[in-house]
């Protein structure tokens, strides 16, 4: 089994995503994060989250990239403030059982995306695209 921590930006879900729940099998095109692409996660959370992300779910990337299949074992939402850049220390992560298509902002904190753990039964190749 291979455990992968995946980032899914909120706009990806809203544009082209399909809602899913813990326990669902998913098939996604995953790519590795580009250097510094997720550094803002550390800005809003201050806890090294960016380094834990193995892959990014990307509906708009390389369509020839291999599909990765896995079982969703956890889902969390990330909300933070933007002024217009991400505000240091403003983020918070909330565990949820389902990733919905549309997610509400929480006061002055905007929905940014999902942190998801999937477990694949076999080796997963993450294409750089």
The share of residues in helices is 10-25%
Question: In total, how many domains does the architecture comprise?
Answer: 1
> Structural class of the helix and strand makeup?
mainly beta
> Could you list the spans in which at least 5 consecutive residues all have pLDDT below 50?
none
Q: Radius of gyration over alpha carbons?
A: 14 Å
Element pattern in H and E: EHEEHHEEEEE
Number of helical segments with 4 or more residues:
3
The proportion of residues in beta strands is: 35-45%
Largest sheet, in brief, is: 5 strands, mixed, barrel
* Number of extended strands: 8
Mean pLDDT over the full residue set: 91
Report the principal-axis shape: globular
Strand order of the largest sheet: 1-4-3-5-8
In angstroms, what separates the terminal alpha carbons?
A: 24 Å
Pfam families: DUF6578
Keywords:
129 residues, five-stranded mixed β-barrel, mainly beta
Folded structure, characterized:
With 129 residues, this protein is mainly beta. The protein has one domain (2-120). The chain has 3 helices and 8 strands. The chain has helices at 10-16, 39-45, 49-52, and strands at residues 2-9, 20-21, 25-31, 55-57, 67-80, 92-96, 98-99, 110-120. A 5-stranded mixed beta barrel has the order 1-4-3-5-8. It has a two-stranded antiparallel sheet with strand order 2-7. It is globular. The two termini are 24 Å apart. The model has no long low-confidence stretch (mean pLDDT 91).
Describe what is shown at a glance:
The protein is mainly beta and 129 residues long. The protein has three helices and eight strands; from the N terminus they run βαββααβββββ.
